[in-house]
Design brief:
This protein is an alpha/beta fold and 471 residues long. Helices cover 23% and strands 26% of the residues. It contains twelve helices and 23 strands. The longest helix has 31 residues, at 142-172. GO terms for molecular function: catalytic activity, acting on a nucleic acid; nucleic acid binding; S-adenosylmethionine-dependent methyltransferase activity. It holds the Pfam family MT-A70. It comes from Canis lupus familiaris (Dog).
């Protein structure tokens, strides 16, 4: 269970526990009894080179083998089977200190800046070229003023609600006061290199020869060997319907595919395989790559314009009464866009606004609550697709109405944009057999279909630790 505590303000989540409860077990058959021609659980793209489109040849193959559910047969004899279990690296959730220390931040703010929100002017002390202090007046822009006004409205909700959940976390032992020993043990984490460049690979795949879209079905990782050209990987939804994990290899990089999960690796221009599956979803979670100044300056991450986000075919993907959830940054421009333009264009009615509050392992906000730059929370806008004349799926099953102003409090993963899981938080508000879809996903989870041009990013084997295998 990822829900550690559920109180009236919301939920205290254990993100790491959710990942490790997925049951990342890989079943492997061993030689010599399995024979020299035993298929491997991998997708071989090693021959592909990222610097040339001509590298996409018809000889590259996608090989998959489900050794977990395959019954023994004459060809295998008494083949030995080992079970390799993986867990997510716990150090990626070791957030022992706030990213900005509140006391230092407040001291600097009081010394160097005096704000006057009433007239929208602040005074800053800065050093001139000759080393003397001088004062300058800086006028807040409209976006800053809107952000300050919004923060003032929700500040009490964030502070009081999260404090209640954090105190419960201390009582149960889930959270611990920061100790000197714990502080000294925290070391920088070496992250795996993104040598596969999934997003670039998806961009290059658009230049592959087009296939007959109407004939393509989902590609299932089944018991027997299957071999298809690389075009299929980018033009078909890949499914792992077994009860065990599969490992695939893409351009020399290994990724774990959890049980009962499916994914499509593509960019926004190649979403048609989702539509070709003729499946609609009861829950759609969206984490758009919002445009902002830091993203534009760094040039490390791609982003979408509001017009491109509006073109996502939510009306075609959504089942009647579908619950649509969009992650929103703290920029009021994005918040207004979702509420006033995006949801109306999709015929989605807003039902609630929640917040994800990020804390350390010792219960502190990762950023000072009143920081003018970074806030320790992000927003989620929840809406329902307007009811259609089509009968609702399992209309006899009742679900609870969505409550407003709920908090999701958790220790964030140190990986960029690794959002907390919503599956257990949403279980009371969706049907038990509801189909779930995550757009712009960077990881997979059982029972969900995930789509994005980095959909396998956090499934990289280097983010996991192999435990001692069992035969």
């Amino acid at each position: 269970m990822s829900v550690v505590h559920q109180l009236s303000p919301g939920w205290l989540l254990d993100h790491l526990s959710f990942i490790n409860n997925i049951n990342y077990q890989l079943h492997q058959h061993h030689e010599p009894c399995c024979g020299e021609n035993e298929p491997t659980s991998s997708v071989h793209f090693d021959s592909l080179q990222m610097d040339s489109l001509t590298s996409f040849g018809t000889s590259a193959t996608f090989n998959a083998f489900d050794s977990a559910t395959q019954p023994d047969n004459d060809d295998r004899g008494n083949c030995e089977i080992s079970i390799q279990k993986y867990v997510f690296r716990s150090e990626l959730f070791n957030v022992t200190k706030p990213y900005i220390i509140s006391a230092v931040h407040n001291e600097c703010q009081q010394r160097n800046e005096k704000e006057y929100p009433v007239d929208g002017v602040k005074e800053e002390n800065c050093l001139s070229i000759i080393g003397k202090k001088r004062k300058r007046c800086v006028v807040f822009n409209q976006g800053e003023l809107d952000a300050m006004e919004y923060h003032t409205k929700i500040r009490g909700l964030i502070l009081d609600g999260s404090s209640e959940l954090i105190q419960e976390g201390f009582k149960s032992g889930f959270l611990h006061p920061l100790s000197e020993k714990w502080d000294k043990c925290s070391e920088p984490v070496t992250l795996p290199l993104d040598t596969c460049n999934l997003s670039e690979l998806c961009a290059m795949a658009k230049h592959l020869p087009s296939l007959n879209e109407t004939e393509l079905q989902a590609l299932q990782l089944m018991e027997q060997d299957i071999s298809v050209t690389e075009q299929d990987l980018f033009s078909r939804v890949v499914e792992n319907n077994s009860s065990f994990t599969k490992m695939i290899t893409l351009m020399g990089q290994k990724y774990l595919v959890p049980p009962k999960s499916s994914f499509l690796l593509s960019d926004i221009s190649c979403m048609h395989p989702l539509l070709n599956c003729r499946k609609t979803y009861d829950v759609i979670v969206i984490d758009p790559p919002w445009q902002n100044k830091s993203v534009k300056r760094s040039n490390r991450y791609s982003y979408l314009s509001p017009l491109q986000i509006k073109q996502i075919p939510i009306p075609k993907l959504a089942a009647p009464n579908c619950l649509v959830i969009t992650w929103v940054t703290n920029r009021q421009k994005h918040l207004r866009f979702v509420k006033e333009e995006l949801y109306p264009s999709w015929s989605v009615d807003i039902v609630a606004e929640w917040h994800w509050v990020k804390i350390t392992n010792s219960g502190e906000f990762v950023f000072p609550l009143d920081s003018p730059h970074k806030k320790p929370y992000e927003g989620l806008i929840l809406g329902r697709v307007r009811e259609k004349t089509i009968p609702l799926r399992n209309a006899g099953i009742k679900v609870l109405p969505i409550p407003d102003h709920k908090l999701i409090v958790s220790v964030p993963c140190t990986l960029h944009s690794h959002k907390p899981p919503l599956a257990e938080v949403l279980k009371d508000y969706v049907k038990p057999d509801g189909e779930c879809l995550e757009l712009f996903a960077r990881n997979l989870q059982p029972g969900w279909t995930s789509w994005g041009n980095e959909v396998l990013k956090f499934q990289h084997l280097d983010y996991f630790v192999a435990l001692e295998s069992k035969s």
